[in-house]
């Protein structure tokens, strides 16, 4: 490589140091200062000097801006873990937006984090309904009185929507009305049939301020009349809240949504070779086996055996299995929209992330 021939600084200092020191007279110094400075002309053979290239910004790994909903009343913490202090809270059904951390917490910004295990991709619907306002009512931006008022309806207005898990009617477009201020179209004394969507309490009157006098298991068929505040009266002193009832008999089958909801329960649990339980950690097939096992579906222990029992599909749906390799060496749960839930490798927690290359097939076990 060409190097300009310049004396080394140390040699140059040595040469100058050997010369006798002379002092310029005042007149000679004035003449020297009046002369123009001369610079050496660049050599035509010298290589061109170019500025160094700007560093290329690498994209953040697995950064996802997502919208989620609180599936219960949840704490907001100052960092991504329960060892951080509580700095606020969110009511069930609150919509939040942020980015996933690598241990499965959602960063809302401004030093606020919510655990992924208490969030869901969408608010569950518990049956469509048409109801009427029993008084002048407020319409809110979310399913709770802590959300802002975005409108109102006069007494007797007909409204339609889906019930949320906490008994609010979702009218669509970010508009909600509390079930306590609505009456059913069937409330005029007509007998109706409903089904419990979970284990429920039976109370002595139409409200939670009344004493519990019994209970029903999930899926129980109940017949009665609806009160003005949406409770089902099944006997002289027996009432069940309308918010825990649905109009259609629940299905006994496990759905893809059930699988995804269960898969999210274990976000943040770190990988452990051979692990198949939350207390010890998971490897990839131990994680999928445990998730499906919690829903009553027995999967084999190994990735290759899980692929053998799954029905191959070309158009995966949320809740299906995703395999890599042939024979398969990795398995995950398809989350939809090109994302998966998996326990990937040592040093990583169970997380939701983009599906990476090398997929060898999809399988359905539901």
Q: Can you put this structure into words, describing what you see?
A:
The protein has 366 residues and is mainly beta. The chain folds into four domains: 65-120, SH3 type barrels, CATH 2.30.30; 124-184, Roll (SH3 type barrels); 186-240, no CATH class; 256-364, endopeptidase fold (from Nostoc punctiforme) (Alpha-Beta Complex), CATH 3.90.1720. 13% of the residues lie in helices and 34% in strands. The protein contains five helices and 29 strands. The strands form eight sheets. The protein has a six-stranded antiparallel β-sheet with strand order 24-29-25-26-27-28, with helices on one face. A five-stranded antiparallel β-sheet has the order 6-5-4-1-7, with no helix packed on it. A five-stranded antiparallel β-sheet has the order 13-12-11-8-14, with no helix packed on it. A hairpin with an 8-residue loop joins strand 16 (200-203) and strand 17 (212-216). The longest helix has 11 residues, at 284-294. It is globular and about 65 Å long.
